[in-house]
Amino acid sequence: MRSWLQKTKRFREEQRKREIEERRRFPLEQRLREHIIGQESAIATVGAAIRRKENGWYDEEHPLVFLFLGSSGIGGPCGEGTGGLHFVTVQVSQEPTEEPEGKQKPCPGRGARWPPILLLVGFVPLDPYWLTHMGTKGKTELAKQTAKYLHKDVKKGFIRLDMSEFQERHEVAKFIGSPPGYVGHEEGGQLTKKLKQCPNAVVLFDEVDKAHPDVLTIMLQLFDEGRLTDGKGKTIDCKDAIFIMTSNVASDEIAQHALQLRQEAMEMSRKRIAEKLDDVQMTDKITISKQFKEKVIRPILKAHFRRDEFLGRINEIVYFLPFCHSELIQLVNKELSFWAKKAKARHNITLVWDREVMDVLADGYNLHYGARSIKHEVERRVVNQLAAAYEQELLPRGCTLRITVDDSDKRLLKTKDSSTPLKEGQRKGPTLRLEIVEDSKSRKLDIQAPLAPEEMSFPL
Ligand SMILES: Nc1ncnc2c1ncn2[C@@H]1O[C@H](COP(=O)(O)OP(=O)(O)OP(=O)(O)O)[C@@H](O)[C@H]1O
Ligand SMILES: [Mg+2]
């Protein structure tokens, strides 16, 4: 028995050493950069904090707590058109689902990552709610990738709770479980049940600003003491857990500040170019100032959460900034590559695209809506055409398909200043076309109406 215990201990120790060595060779920042475009300072902050924890340079009495703050992009040079009624198409999707290896699907237009549930088409008011909720910048993705890195692919290692489900006082019971004699006592709490299974999980509290103050009180106890007592009176020790809260409370201010900083950086670069200085760096990198954090962000957080001790328990506040043009291009490229991989795997079709296509897709995207709208833009302007062409049997198996900007529209690209945002009514922009490449010549595809989706152009 004793030797068995010793063997197990030795095995665990060796495994731990192997993992440390693996992380040294492949740091978290590297993994995050593979999945997240831009957000350099967020990646650096999270990477450094996890490294401190992993190497024993942290306060082991308390769990690590992050607050991820998003930026909506309202206001600033691109802040027009936020009021009134707009015609929109909204595709409501659920969590990404993994597609089993090697499983073939019948239609190229069906995204495996985001199964569509509902398509709503209609008039909705474009109010700040929409803007803040569509300003996706990678907060959830960063939390997910951190969990994947720390727990490999163990599902239990990532706990995600939508805090908008805990807005009422009575919903505290859902969080930690009801006391004996109350409805749902047997079920246990959503958080406590999962934490019990994996006390060192990465726990994501999405939209924490929506939670009822009583829920925040429980969270404070959790952050402060590193343990939690559930409805059954059982205490769960979770000092080793990592808690990540996300919020969009100060998103307008962060976006405005970031846009201003970016403009200043651009002007500075231009000036230096004009003065022919040697050390000119056209940089998109900006840093949120300490003064802005203290004078603008902290008062907003304080007014919202009302408790200094709650804010005091946050180890790092992490800022997610609006994307700059070059990051948008990378997002478009990532999305097109995703579909190119699918086209190859499912139909042996090689998908290529011109550089101008990326500009068109990045420009057509409204800066305010975040990364998710790039996905929608690619689906609307490219994948719709692929599906229609496939349905009309225009795509021979094994062909090479090129996405290109319609010749007659190319001049639009040349005349357009890319720093000027498109106004409503101007949004259609250049048309994207599909061509088959044969013997180094290209043949345009004649996709029949009403399935030519380029014609169905409304602002997202
Ligand atoms: N910086 C980024 N780099 C690459 N992809 C991104 C980035 N931000 C978002 N995405 C893509 O958009 C999807 C949605 O992003 P995510 O859920 O992380 O956004 P979020 O910031 O949590 O937004 P929300 O405030 O709406 O919750 C991700 O699955 C990811 O594919
Ligand atoms: Mg999110």
From TrEMBL:
**Tagged with keyword Hydrolase:** no
Biological source species? Phrynosoma platyrhinos (Desert horned lizard)
Which keywords fit this entry according to its UniProt record? ATP-binding, Nucleotide-binding
Superkingdom assignment: Eukaryota
Q: Which InterPro entries does the entry mention?
A: ATPase_AAA_core, Clp_ATPase_C, ClpA/B, ClpA_ClpB, P-loop_NTPase
Annotated ranges, domain Clp ATPase C-terminal? 323-412
A Pfam match is ClpB_D2-small
PANTHER family found in the cross-reference section: ATP-DEPENDENT CLP PROTEASE (PTHR11638), MITOCHONDRIAL DISAGGREGASE (PTHR11638:SF93)
Q: Where is this region: Disordered?
A: 414-433
Does the keyword Nucleotide-binding belong to this entry?
yes
In Swiss-Prot or TrEMBL terms, this protein is called Clp ATPase C-terminal domain-containing protein
